[in-house]
């Protein structure tokens, strides 16, 4: 019985380690998510982005980008234009699902 419990504990620990590594890797692969987690999530939480679309001030991608840029000024990080774009893309992909602008239009 002790060997079985030790084996279960070892497997559970391995699963937890693999999950933690996968989450860290996913965050590292998405700089927008990493930036949001590091500088925005102190004041924001997921429900902020899950408002009823009609009640949101964000109606299109330009609105979302403007909000991200304005709010970035409230953080302790000096966001570059590229970082603002990364956070905008992350929020749009995860929450807003706004249509992307098509090149040439």
Structure description:
- This protein is mainly alpha-helical and 105 residues long.
- The protein has a domain at 31-96.
- It contains four helices and no strands.
- The protein has helices at residues 2-29, 31-40, 61-72, 81-96.
- The chain is globular.
- It starts with a helix and ends in a 9-residue tail after the last helix.
Question: Topology of this structure?
Answer:
Layout: H1 2-29, H2 31-40, H3 61-72, H4 81-96
Could you give a short description of this structure?
The protein is an all-alpha fold and 105 residues long. It is 63% helix and 0% strand. The protein has a domain at 31-96.
List keywords for this structure.
105 residues; mainly alpha; 4 helices; 0% strand; globular
């Amino acid at each position: 019985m002790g060997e079985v419990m030790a084996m279960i504990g070892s497997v559970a620990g391995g699963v937890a380690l693999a999950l933690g590594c996968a989450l860290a890797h996913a965050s590292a692969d998405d700089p927008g998510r990493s930036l949001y987690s590091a500088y925005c999530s102190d004041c924001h939480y997921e429900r902020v982005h899950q408002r009823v679309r009609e009640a949101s001030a964000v109606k299109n991608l330009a609105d979302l980008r403007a909000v991200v840029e304005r709010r970035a000024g409230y953080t302790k990080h000096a966001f570059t234009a590229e970082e603002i774009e990364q956070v905008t893309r992350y929020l749009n992909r995860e929450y807003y699902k706004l249509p992307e602008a098509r090149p040439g239009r």
